[in-house]
Amino acid sequence: MKVVKFGGSSLASGNQIEKVFQIVISDPDRKVVVVSAPGKRFPEDQKVTDLLIECAERCLSNQNSQEIAASVIKRYSTIAEELQLPSKIISEIQADLEARLNGDRSNPERFIDRIKASGEDNHAKLVAAFFEEQGVEASYVNPGEAGLLVSAEPGNAQVLPESYERLHSLRERSGLLIFPGFFGFSKEGEVFTFSRSGSDITGSILANGLKADLYENFTDVDAVYSVNPYIVKRPKEIKELTYREMRELSYAGFTVLHDEALVPAFRAGIPVQIKNTNNPAAPGTRIVYERDNTNGPVIGIASDQGFCSIYVSKYLMNREIGFGRKLLSILEEFGLSYEHTPSGIDDISIILRENQFEAEMEQEITGRIVAELHADEVKFEHSLALIMVVGEGMRHNVGTMARASKALARASVNIEMINQGSSEVSMMFGVKEVDEKRAVQALYEEFFAAVTV
Amino acid sequence: MKVVKFGGSSLASGNQIEKVFQIVISDPDRKVVVVSAPGKRFPEDQKVTDLLIECAERCLSNQNSQEIAASVIKRYSTIAEELQLPSKIISEIQADLEARLNGDRSNPERFIDRIKASGEDNHAKLVAAFFEEQGVEASYVNPGEAGLLVSAEPGNAQVLPESYERLHSLRERSGLLIFPGFFGFSKEGEVFTFSRSGSDITGSILANGLKADLYENFTDVDAVYSVNPYIVKRPKEIKELTYREMRELSYAGFTVLHDEALVPAFRAGIPVQIKNTNNPAAPGTRIVYERDNTNGPVIGIASDQGFCSIYVSKYLMNREIGFGRKLLSILEEFGLSYEHTPSGIDDISIILRENQFEAEMEQEITGRIVAELHADEVKFEHSLALIMVVGEGMRHNVGTMARASKALARASVNIEMINQGSSEVSMMFGVKEVDEKRAVQALYEEFFAAVTV
């Protein structure tokens, strides 16, 4: 039995939904279909979720929201026309959206969540209607009725553990189950959404709850690539990688799948298959618990910009019990989360994402570190990029670091920072943002395109 | 003006003290002579400080301490005979030790400190007497009278900042000043010792207080070596290195000079010269603020055993503000100080010195991390060695990491951990203890003995 999730672009038009239908019925193991809200049909198009957010915000600020609500309905009715569905479904969707827009606005965040969730909810109803029209047994499933319970955190709901057992009974239902992604219900029966792109999470939760054999995640790429195609042309596709490898890659810019989405499948040991709705014959990429290491030590190279470091030095820092903890407490008080803390003997650097900083913070933080920890030196460095070289095969492979650092040296890239050791499946290099592209290209060259001379 | 400090082996016998005398009078700039307690004359010999500690402990447990006190006096009287000093000095030393042993024992730690400090104090008196016998103007200086004030921490006293100004007036005194190392006086007038080998600290404090041009530290080696001579035969001597380089090297096993001893000299920018009492013609090693980087990127390689790591992993750890800080707080509650914290995306390792652990701690710590932080995995790894590759020249030298990791790969050494980035003057490699020697040899080969092929 398989749980199959389709992304927004896979469901953006009637034509796309017909492809989805063919994919689903071509494999009788495909039982549960998780549906996103309609996405973009062309690059300049707007996603229904974005329209809904704007609509909700206009309501809250008492601006005119009619026009934008109409354009949401227009998206659904265009699709319904393309699929030659009876107009009843559109009346239903319109009534639902109106009811939500006229609902309680006393808690703005919860109001927004209810509006946002309608994108997936109504699209699941539409898709179910289409499947039924094709003469297939299929039914829309309401997440609340099915038992998908979540925490009452608007825009960041977390699945509650009891959901899994409740959802398991969906196995007993006959026919295809069309399940809206992105949201669940609190114990009090209110709608709360996951973080953005949360339909991936819904699929993973269902795969876990129903103890599926496979979670198929259909998107618009043939596979996960070994490196960013904007940096290296026609990069190698990854056929199989582990959850840990996927997580390390996604940390630094590989955004094929939502980070949190891997957790439920991972905990249940269910493999995840990334596939392309527009090219279902392509094998795609499989995410598994363990894999053979037959293709060299490195499986992928990811990179991300927008980091900065705070360097703190103090003679004999090393002797002070609690120095690091106190330093991290100061950052915590500013609400800053940090990424890494490489340390020397009497110095430590804290690597953070730059977008967390507000204007005055840098000076305030420096002041507090000097005043409270009597540091000799506090120095900010901006515009850093982190590069992750990922692969289970590099565990206990003695030459990988040598090859990586040599490749960077050859490309005249200065390594600002290395973090290796904790994770056995990755090496991390910090470089200046201006060196990022050259560094990634040099590493790809070394591990994927190197020819023995 | 120079402050000159002599170690215990440089003052272990009459013959050695004659060498010291020749060294001191050969340079009229040598004004202040800091004296250690008599050290070992041959490998099986006992240091006077060790005898004194045993003597004090016997007193405290009401055991017979006569014999061991006699052997302390015997060491001084042997030296006095070799130097043909009048017996008066030995009577004085004997009376002093007896008075200390019969002193207040209500605070055992302070009692031990007073006994320990007598080793240096009495030897300074003996050395001063010998200098005077040779017809040189020289006088013993009592640290309390001279104004060397320290905190009231037995065995770990810290200099108080007001000492420096007080000590400065020693410049006005005529003749050579013979100053006992290792201890100072609290504001209440009680004796407190520095940590072990603390005579180095006394010398550095005096160099700072008197604003000396140079602090000469005489010991029993010709120079600081670029690598441990027990691991690599006849290693290169280091002619000049910076304070930071010395500190990084001494962290991992280079014990020529007491760590804390560099601080006062460093703060005053006074160079430190390491020299050999038994070969004063050898140029020795100079520790300076800044140096030319003319001899390649690496100046020395140090290593030390006895480390362990605690590996903690938790899926999406990276998203939790405060995770690292909470983890460090738990270790702090166990009184553990940590060395480094390399981290991956969802995992972190804490590197600690193994000797801090008591039997049950490992299990208790694991239990608390699992219970309080809901970690997925907590794993201890023992018997690790840290290797420091040190050199100011490696800053912004793009190829150094490549050379180092390649050398380790060639020697089939698996790198368990790398920490580079915070300190700009060192790279740290963690390896298994069994690989330590091979790793250091391979790195030395690469950076000091490599022949271009």
From TrEMBL, chains A, B:
<dbReference type="InterPro" id="IPR001048">
    <property type="entry name" value="Asp/Glu/Uridylate_kinase"/>
</dbReference>
<comment type="function">
    <text>Catalyzes the phosphorylation of the beta-carboxyl group of aspartic acid with ATP to yield 4-phospho-L-aspartate, which is involved in the branched biosynthetic pathway leading to the biosynthesis of amino acids threonine, isoleucine and methionine.</text>
</comment>
<dbReference type="GO" id="GO:0005829">
    <property type="term" value="C:cytosol"/>
</dbReference>
<dbReference type="InterPro" id="IPR018042">
    <property type="entry name" value="Aspartate_kinase_CS"/>
</dbReference>
<keyword id="KW-0457">Lysine biosynthesis</keyword>
<keyword id="KW-0418">Kinase</keyword>
<keyword id="KW-0067">ATP-binding</keyword>
<dbReference type="InterPro" id="IPR042199">
    <property type="entry name" value="AsparK_Bifunc_asparK/hSer_DH"/>
</dbReference>
<keyword id="KW-0220">Diaminopimelate biosynthesis</keyword>
<feature type="binding site">
    <location>
        <position position="120"/>
    </location>
    <ligand>
        <name>substrate</name>
    </ligand>
</feature>
<dbReference type="GO" id="GO:0004072">
    <property type="term" value="F:aspartate kinase activity"/>
</dbReference>
<feature type="binding site">
    <location>
        <begin position="219"/>
        <end position="220"/>
    </location>
    <ligand>
        <name>ATP</name>
    </ligand>
</feature>
<comment type="pathway">
    <text>Amino-acid biosynthesis; L-threonine biosynthesis; L-threonine from L-aspartate: step 1/5.</text>
</comment>
<dbReference type="GO" id="GO:0019877">
    <property type="term" value="P:diaminopimelate biosynthetic process"/>
</dbReference>
<dbReference type="InterPro" id="IPR054352">
    <property type="entry name" value="ACT_Aspartokinase"/>
</dbReference>
<comment type="pathway">
    <text>Amino-acid biosynthesis; L-methionine biosynthesis via de novo pathway; L-homoserine from L-aspartate: step 1/3.</text>
</comment>
<feature type="binding site">
    <location>
        <begin position="5"/>
        <end position="8"/>
    </location>
    <ligand>
        <name>ATP</name>
    </ligand>
</feature>
<dbReference type="Pfam" id="PF22468">
    <property type="entry name" value="ACT_9"/>
</dbReference>
<feature type="binding site">
    <location>
        <position position="49"/>
    </location>
    <ligand>
        <name>substrate</name>
    </ligand>
</feature>
<feature type="domain" description="ACT">
    <location>
        <begin position="389"/>
        <end position="453"/>
    </location>
</feature>
<keyword id="KW-0547">Nucleotide-binding</keyword>
<dbReference type="InterPro" id="IPR001341">
    <property type="entry name" value="Asp_kinase"/>
</dbReference>
<protein>
    <recommendedName>
        <fullName>Aspartokinase</fullName>
        <ecNumber>2.7.2.4</ecNumber>
    </recommendedName>
</protein>
<dbReference type="GO" id="GO:0005524">
    <property type="term" value="F:ATP binding"/>
</dbReference>
<dbReference type="Pfam" id="PF00696">
    <property type="entry name" value="AA_kinase"/>
</dbReference>
<feature type="binding site">
    <location>
        <position position="225"/>
    </location>
    <ligand>
        <name>ATP</name>
    </ligand>
</feature>
<keyword id="KW-0808">Transferase</keyword>
<comment type="similarity">
    <text>Belongs to the aspartokinase family.</text>
</comment>
<dbReference type="GO" id="GO:0009089">
    <property type="term" value="P:lysine biosynthetic process via diaminopimelate"/>
</dbReference>
<dbReference type="InterPro" id="IPR005260">
    <property type="entry name" value="Asp_kin_monofn"/>
</dbReference>
<dbReference type="InterPro" id="IPR035804">
    <property type="entry name" value="AKIII_YclM_N"/>
</dbReference>
<dbReference type="InterPro" id="IPR002912">
    <property type="entry name" value="ACT_dom"/>
</dbReference>
<dbReference type="InterPro" id="IPR045865">
    <property type="entry name" value="ACT-like_dom_sf"/>
</dbReference>
<dbReference type="GO" id="GO:0009090">
    <property type="term" value="P:homoserine biosynthetic process"/>
</dbReference>
<keyword id="KW-0028">Amino-acid biosynthesis</keyword>
<dbReference type="InterPro" id="IPR036393">
    <property type="entry name" value="AceGlu_kinase-like_sf"/>
</dbReference>
